[in-house]
Structures are given as C-alpha cells and as structure tokens.
Write a structure and sequence with these properties.
Elements lengths: L52 H5 L2 H17 L6 E6 L4 H10 L5 E5 L1
Parallel strand pairs: 1-2
C-alpha cells in the first residue's frame, strides 16, 4: 500500500486467516512487522480476542501477571523457547549477528557469556 513503511521481513497475508480455519478453529496473529490491518472472514462464527502488550505492561499489576505467566510456563515446560543457535563467548557475537542478518534461522540466537 502506498505510504506504508517497507517491512521486508513481514510475510504478506494473501487471504483472510479465517478462510484457512476449520469450524471452531482458532487463529493467533502477531502482526508487529506488518502494519496492514488484518482481514477476517465474515462467513463463519467469529470470536476475536485482543491482547495489547504495551498497554498491559505499563501497569504494575500487568507486569506482575506477565512475569508470573512466563516464569510458570518456563518452569513447567509449557513455554519452551526454540533455540536456533548458541554461541559461547562475546567474541562470537559477530557470528550471531551474521546468522540473524541472513534470516536463515528459526528461533532465538543465544550468546552465552
């Protein structure tokens, strides 16, 4: 769209996400990289839940709840981050940056110090 910033790493959405769902399915859309509005199908039962990270984290109670959720998920294994590559030592930082810039990885890049 004219006037919108370039977002080369954002994958364009070619069809409304709801078109790919089975009845009763759920879609989770995390759209920080693509400023375009999300199109949702109107021909199926639709429930939309929104979540605003910034608004929630501005309040002390929201930060406390988010911290508890993340800590408990890491502890019980329900939140397991995907690690693409681990580099040992700060001298490997450039290797981590090269991997990130290549956009050939899936998951987090860890520099262990």
């Amino acid at each position: 769209m004219p006037g919108w910033p370039s977002t080369p790493s954002a994958a364009p959405v070619s069809a409304p996400p709801g078109d790919a769902l089975s009845p009763g399915g759920a879609a989770v859309l995390y759209r920080w990289l693509d400023p375009r509005p999300v199109e949702l199908s109107m021909n199926w039962p639709l429930t939309v839940h929104t979540y605003a990270n910034g608004a929630m984290l501005r309040a002390a109670d929201g930060r406390r709840r988010a911290e508890h959720f993340i800590e408990s998920g890491l502890r019980d294994g329900s939140l397991t981050p995907v690690i693409a590559e681990t580099y040992d030592g700060l001298e490997r930082m450039a290797d981590g940056h090269r991997l990130m810039e290549s956009n050939r990885h899936t998951g987090k890049i860890v520099i262990r110090v």
